[in-house]
Design brief:
Elements: H1 2-54, E1 64-69, E2 72-77, H2 78-81, H3 88-93, E3 109-111, H4 115-129, H5 147-156, H6 179-217, E4 224-229, E5 232-237, H7 238-241, H8 248-252, H9 274-282, H10 289-297, H11 302-307, H12 310-316, H13 321-337, E6 342-345, H14 349-366, H15 383-389, E7 397-406, E8 414-421
Parallel strand pairs: 1-3, 4-6, 6-8
Antiparallel strand pairs: 1-2, 4-5, 7-8
Length: 424
């Protein structure tokens, strides 16, 4: 009988010990989960506060984002652009930095990048958005000649790390309980470890965001430079053109020599107040004063003025056909005068584009966002052109001279640059 009592006592002790160990293990799992969820909540709170100060807290997944990517206009949904969480790319279009993003004269987000490479990234994200979780979408692709440039952009936007295999944590498997409980505990630990890695990555990314935004996509609208390279439009930032400090190119775009480029109307018709619109109508030849009063009564601002058509004018109360025709003609001329000024560069778009792509990477490297870029490569059929373009002296840019600032049509102004480049 005593032996039985001892056996039962021993069994109860073992059972109690196992229950205590199980409860302790579950508590440990729950505590780790609580800590991780608290960290995630704090991070999301910080992002909301950031959006309240620097961006927009009312963004929606179906918002259409218009982007001026080096002169190439690209449109995509916010949900597509923001689907790879924890990347600089997601941060850029998340809405929490909207007030800091540089915009062109049409209100589009301006990015000083190669437009074709950026389009390749957006194409990849569009494909990713419609792919199932089981399908592994290939990283952005482009022609061999531009693969290096594209790879640099994937680094810049934080997308390159998704090409790397995830590091594996050392496992400490649980074996104290029954097989099914051990399996469930081990699976939960693995999921918590994965969540911890994810949250740690998101926290580091958020710290990196402000430096990225301030260094790469902030600035002043007046420093956006539109180039007409023998008919091909390229848009860049003045800081990019000035990145090689000892070059003549940098000297020509510094504050002492460069005349601010932009719309021909210095302040911008789009920013006119209803009073300024009314005064413009009032001073227009052939328009009666009572018509300007209609504009004032309807509180038409500059943006609305440029959108007016015959139907809109009639709804406002403008009835005379002749007056409507005069106003429509005047509005069209006004709209034309707001178009961006471009700098004409009479060289091969291919060759100049190669140089501009290199300067862009050099600028981004100066902000410690990517490694030092390699010199650009040129396809065989373009090498002779590059040699011609590269004649000169003095670093990357050898001879830059602003020859004239004259308009051939209407109020437009075109600045002609004669440029020579030394071999890169």
């Amino acid at each position: 009988m005593e032996q039985l009592k001892n056996a039962e006592k021993k069994l109860k002790a073992a059972h109690d010990s196992r229950e205590i160990a199980y409860a302790a293990e579950i508590k440990k799992l729950d505590d780790v989960k609580t800590t991780l969820l608290d960290r995630l909540h704090d991070l999301n709170e910080q992002k909301q506060q950031c959006a309240a100060v620097n961006g927009n807290v009312n963004v929606r997944d179906d918002d259409l984002i218009e982007i001026n990517a080096g002169g190439k206009i690209i449109v995509a949904r916010r949900s597509v652009l923001c689907q790879v969480k924890g990347t600089r790319f997601e941060a850029l279009f998340s809405g929490r930095w909207d007030k800091k993003l540089l915009q062109d004269s049409s209100g589009r987000i301006f990015l000083d990048v190669n437009g074709d490479c950026f389009q390749a990234i957006v194409d990849y994200l569009n494909e990713l958005a419609i792919s199932s979780e089981d399908e592994r979408t290939k990283m952005p692709t482009i022609s061999d000649e531009y693969k290096y440039l594209l790879s640099q952009y994937t680094v810049l936007f934080g997308l390159s790390r998704f090409e790397q295999p995830h590091s594996k944590r050392e496992k400490f498997p649980e074996f104290r309980f029954s097989a099914d409980i051990n399996e469930a505990i081990n699976e939960k630990w693995e999921s918590l470890n994965a969540l911890q890695d994810e949250i740690t990555s998101l926290e580091k990314s958020f710290v990196d965001e402000q430096h990225f935004i301030d260094s790469f996509v902030s600035g002043e609208k007046k420093d956006i430079i539109t180039l007409n390279v023998s008919g091909t439009v390229m848009t860049t930032n003045r800081a990019t053109l000035m990145i090689v400090e000892d070059s003549v190119l940098a000297q020509q775009f510094d504050d002492t020599k460069w005349t601010v480029q932009g719309s021909n109307n210095t302040r911008g018709v789009k920013e006119w107040t209803p009073k300024e619109v009314s005064e413009w109508v009032k001073n227009f030849e052939g328009i009666k004063e009572k018509v300007s009063k209609l504009f004032k009564k309807n509180e038409i601002n500059g943006l609305e003025l440029l959108a007016l058509n015959e139907f809109g004018l009639e709804k406002m109360g403008v009835s005379r056909p002749g007056t409507i025709c005069l106003l429509i003609k005047a509005i069209k001329q006004l709209e034309k005068s707001t178009q961006d000024v471009s700098t004409l560069i009479e060289y091969s778009p291919y060759c100049f584009g190669k140089i501009l792509d290199y300067l862009r990477l050099k600028f981004v490297h100066s902000k410690e966002l990517i490694d030092k870029p390699t010199l650009p490569t040129v396809s065989n059929d373009q090498k002779e052109r590059k040699k011609t373009l590269a004649k000169g002296r003095g670093g990357i840019a050898a001879v830059v001279a602003i020859a004239a600032a004259a308009a051939a049509v209407g109020h437009h102004r075109t600045e002609f640059l004669d440029i020579g480049f030394e071999s890169l």
